[in-house]
Specification:
disordered C terminus, disordered N terminus, mainly alpha, two-stranded antiparallel sheet, 2 strands, Four Helix Bundle (Hemerythrin (Met), subunit A)
């Protein structure tokens, strides 16, 4: 009997639920049983399973494989399944392996999947091609079994009968039959990329669908982002949504305490759009600072005009909060406060150059997520500083300390 090769198994992601391993054993045994009976013992040896006689395989190929799979660890079952999946196209086996690989990452919940399916109620999966063509490119429906009970042998025959000949399945029925509620994230993301591809939809319909899908995915930590262009048309891919900077939580807490409705809502929208809509995020970054300046000026009893832009608002506020560099004697504070003024002016300039507040024109630079990340983070930091400074001045006026009232290093009044 030849010696069975024992490679070092790949590390397991997490503890695999017994039900998943049971299903993987079944799928692997089924895949092995598709081989000729006289090839089954050799195939099992190649997959690092125990050897046996051809006569046993001729009696039942499935039982031959299942018996040997039952004798090995879950880790070895996964390794053997990967080896076979690498050699042969086995959709159901590959799907189960993908689900095991995805145990580590954030899930796309059943609720989100139902909401995604609902986007297609009463509309086709594609307008540029037939639905069945799009489905055929994602699922091997010609070899998958039809759902039970059914007179059709394959899933393709079933779908053809009930969506083309009879048209008695809703889009929800079709997508749930394809397994969209339970499929791997990889398969779900392939589907979402396909239905937002330019050969499925075009123009505003494509963009609107992509935005709706992105909005739903973000609840589970993913984003449908622009991946590039083909023949001038955009195409999309699902990615992990950016988690933001370490300061996000601190800024959120400060702005929520200051104004939980308008100001904090503006900050939240800016954060959410950094990765998916850079131009919109840049616009919100400036608007956030404008809101904070106006609110503090109002609380301080100062006036401002609707025509005031961000630099004008900040100049008025800096007088109220004594933030002008000339109000301070220590060089380090003069430099910091001078930089704050530059940040505000730069945010306005960045917005004017890159945001969606103006027509981009054919040669205008397009904002990237890194530009939005910079703008939003700077705006959040500045907004937090202004709010904290205003709160400190209010507290100081209440009699906490003269140093807080006049500012560290500030020039004394003449």
């Amino acid at each position: 009997m030849p010696t069975i090769r024992q490679p070092t198994p790949a590390p397991m992601p997490v503890a695999i639920p017994p039900a998943m391993i049971k299903e993987l054993r079944h799928l692997l045994a089924s895949a092995i049983s598709d081989a000729k009976a006289y090839d089954v013992p050799g195939l099992c040896r190649r997959l690092n399973l125990a050897d046996g006689e051809e006569q046993e395989a001729f009696a039942s190929k499935y039982k031959y494989a299942q018996k040997r799979l039952a004798d090995v660890s879950a880790e070895q079952v996964v390794v053997s399944a990967r080896e076979l999946a690498a050699e042969e196209q086995r959709f159901e086996l590959s799907e189960q392996l993908a689900k095991i690989d995805e145990l580590n990452g954030p899930a796309v919940t059943t609720l989100t999947r139902r909401r995604l399916i609902a986007l297609f109620e009463g509309r086709p999966l594609a307008r540029e091609i037939e639905d069945i063509e799009l489905i055929r490119g994602l699922w091997p429906i010609g070899s998958l079994r039809a759902p039970h009970p059914s007179d059709e042998a394959t899933l393709e025959d079933y779908l053809h009968r009930h969506t083309i000949r009879n048209d008695d399945l809703t889009q929800r029925d079709v997508l749930e039959t394809l397994g969209l509620l339970t499929c791997s994230r990889a398969q779900l993301f392939k589907f979402l990329a396909a239905v937002t591809a330019p050969d499925a939809f075009s123009g505003s319909e494509q963009i609107e669908l992509a935005e709706k899908i992105d909005g739903l995915l973000r609840h589970d930590g993913y984003t449908l982002a622009l991946a590039g262009r083909i023949s001038g048309s955009p195409f999309y891919a699902v990615r992990v949504a950016p988690t933001g900077s370490p300061a996000d939580a601190s800024i959120s807490a400060t702005l929520a305490a200051f104004d939980p409705t308008q100001v904090h809502a503006r900050w939240t929208m800016a954060m959410e759009r950094r990765g998916s809509e850079p131009a919109g995020a840049i616009t919100l970054a400036r608007t956030l600072l404008e809101d904070v300046c106006k609110w503090i000026l109002e609380e301080a009893g100062e006036t401002w005009q609707e025509a005031d832009d961000l630099p004008a608002l900040y100049r008025k506020l800096s007088k109220v909060l004594k933030l002008a560099p000339d109000d301070h004697t220590e060089q380090v504070f003069k430099q910091i406060l001078g930089s704050c003024q530059s940040v505000v002016e730069s945010l306005g300039a960045l917005r004017n150059k890159l945001s969606d507040a103006h027509s981009p024109g054919p040669k205008r630079a397009r904002p990237q997520p890194r530009h939005a990340e910079l703008a939003v983070n700077l705006a959040g930091a500045m907004a937090t500083f202004l709010v904290a400074t205003w709160e400190a001045r209010k507290e100081a006026r209440g009699g906490s300390s003269s140093e807080a009232a006049h500012g560290i290093g500030r020039k004394p009044r003449g």
